[in-house]
Amino acid sequence: MDTRARIAWNLRQIWSSKRITQEHLAVDANVDRTEISGFERGEYNPSVDLLDRLATALSVDISDLFVDRQDSGAPPDPLKAGRKPK
Question: Which string of DSSP letters, residue by residue, matches the chain?
């Protein structure tokens, strides 16, 4: 897995495990949701500044986005669109 794919994978794992939607993450990180989506699909190369804002919005250290997870398995299931579950 290349570095961009690893970061995208970790980003998705973190926001889905915290049950945060892409929309909420985008608002909290002050970016457009399509940037996050494009990054996860490998169509966009994020800057360090963007990665830092995403990590801050997720309350994780930026280094957590670079962790090489050998047992990555299948991607997490997407959350339903709309508001964050309560």
Answer: --HHHHHHHHHHHHHHHTT--HHHHHHHHTS-HHHHHHHHTTS----HHHHHHHHHHHTS-GGGGG---TT--SPPPPPPSSSPP-
> pLDDT for 27-71, tens place per residue?
999 999 999 989 888 888 889 999 999 999 999 999 999 998 765
Which of 12, 3, 20, 25 has the alpha carbon at shortest distance from 73?
Answer: 12
The span from the CA of 46 to the CA of 71, in Å, is 24
Report the predicted TM-score, pTM, of the whole model to 2 decimal places: 0.76
